[in-house]
């Protein structure tokens, strides 16, 4: 990975994200997921609820967390102008994008992927097919979502990127992908569900794609988004005096 990642950029990005007040916001999904699972495990009658509740709530929180994290790892520096200082260094645009992207994926997995596994373990057992499936699907979702939202932040300013991301999650994935056949082909949520269901084998997950299609499209979407983010970041021109 030498040449593709920069340890300094990666560490600074992780430290900046964890040192701000939004780190508390990142922790809320973990508390909510585990709390809901514990309460339902203690009070719910029957065992039909885990795939429905955990897939819907868990993957929604995954998308929203990735939106915040994926946008903030680059958006904060664009907003305050410090991106120009970073671009003035000898680090390539591709390395900057990949380093920040890896930090965003790691944070999303830490704050949603692992808590989703814990919540699923409480509900269905640590080694159950549902628990393993939801974890693998969440890992795939973290990879895809963060690429999309980092790209949006690079293409447009952070504010509009957040609004577009919310519309994508709530309108495109939350409504249209469930009602209109074919929309799931461009849905990171459906990619994640298909990958999760290839292990969980639960009809409650209701993926509209085969796992092969989901993996293939997920790889393409991730690669294209990271390439676009790199191209857009290369469009930032550092002029003399701007980084003084």
What report would you give on this structure?
It is a single chain. The model is unreliable at 238-244 (pLDDT under 50). Helix 5 (93-124) packs antiparallel against helix 9 and helix 6 crosses helix 7. The protein has one domain. 78% of the residues lie in helices and 0% in strands. The protein is globular, with a radius of gyration of 19 Å. The protein has 9 helices and no strands. By secondary structure, the protein is mainly α.
List the helices and strands and how they pair.
Layout: H1 7-19, H2 22-43, H3 49-80, H4 83-87, H5 93-124, H6 129-155, H7 158-179, H8 188-200, H9 211-234
Keywords:
244 residues; mainly alpha; disordered C terminus
Summarize the structure.
By secondary structure, this protein is an all-alpha fold.
Structural class: mainly alpha
Instruction: Kindly report the average pLDDT value.
Output: 88
Order of helices and strands: HHHHHHHHH
Distance between the termini: 32 Å
Please tell me how large the radius of gyration is: 19 Å
Helix content: over 70%
* Integer count of domains: 1
What is the percentage of strand-forming residues? under 5%
Number of helices: 9
Low-confidence stretches: 238-244
Please outline the major beta sheet: none
- The total of beta strands comes to 0
The general outline is globular
